[in-house]
């Protein structure tokens, strides 16, 4: 596959909506064209979001479609934390790891449900190992 010219380094602030879209898109190995096709959001608009700091924020519908393709929450794209539900306990070691590696909230919730022989992992290194194994296994599905 030829390199997509819109995959060049971002001119946008990494803390902006566009910067976060680019970050998650590149982490998932998607070109701008692929994200556009899968989210049904135009490539031109996605490019504008990623590269123009003055770009208007996307509608909730567009943001949802983009987040769904990227496997993150809308709040991840907006840079906001979701208030965790009372029933979901996130172990301190997982929270530490998640903050260090800037994990999406959806991934933190998924990991917080993991237990081995009745207990969650105890160290952030163990969480990192598990998360890496899960992310690496995505290639098996292709």
Count of runs of 4 or more consecutive helical residues: 8
Quick one: CATH class of the largest domain? Answer: Mainly Alpha
Order of helices and strands: HHHHHHHH
Distance between the termini: 16 Å
The count of domains is 2
Number of strands: 0
CATH superfamily of the largest domain: lambda repressor-like DNA-binding domains
Shape: elongated
Structural class: mainly alpha
Query: Strand count, sense and closure of the main sheet?
Result: none
CATH architecture verdict of the largest domain: Orthogonal Bundle
What is the typical, i.e. mean, pLDDT?
84
Residue runs with pLDDT of under 50 for 5 or more positions: 1-10
Query: What is the percent of helical residues?
Result: 40-55%
Q: Radius of gyration from the CA trace?
A: 16 Å
Percent of residues in beta strands: under 5%
CATH topology of the largest domain: 434 Repressor (Amino-terminal Domain)
Structure description:
- The protein has 142 residues and is mainly alpha-helical.
- The chain folds into 2 domains: 5-78, Orthogonal Bundle (434 Repressor (Amino-terminal Domain)), CATH 1.10.260; 92-141, no CATH class.
- It has 8 helices and no strands.
- The longest helix is centred in the C-terminal third of the chain and has 13 residues, at 124-136.
- The chain is elongated.
- Mean pLDDT is 84; it is low at 1-10.
Produce a short descriptive summary:
The chain is mainly α and 142 residues long. Helices cover 53% and strands 0% of the residues.
């Amino acid at each position: 596959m030829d390199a997509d010219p819109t995959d060049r380094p971002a001119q946008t602030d990494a803390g902006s909506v566009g910067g976060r879209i680019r970050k998650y898109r590149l982490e998932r190995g998607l070109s701008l064209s692929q994200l556009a096709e899968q989210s049904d959001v135009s490539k031109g608009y996605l490019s504008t979001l990623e590269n123009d700091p003055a770009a208007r924020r996307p509608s909730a519908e567009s943001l949802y479609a983009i987040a769904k393709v990227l496997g993150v929450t809308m709040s991840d794209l907006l840079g906001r934390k979701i208030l965790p539900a009372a029933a979901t306990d996130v172990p301190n070691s997982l929270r530490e790891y998640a903050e260090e590696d800037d994990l999406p909230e959806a991934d933190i919730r998924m990991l917080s449900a993991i237990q081995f022989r009745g207990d969650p992992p105890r160290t952030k290194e163990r969480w990192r190992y598990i998360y890496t194994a899960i992310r690496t296994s995505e290639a098996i599905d292709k």
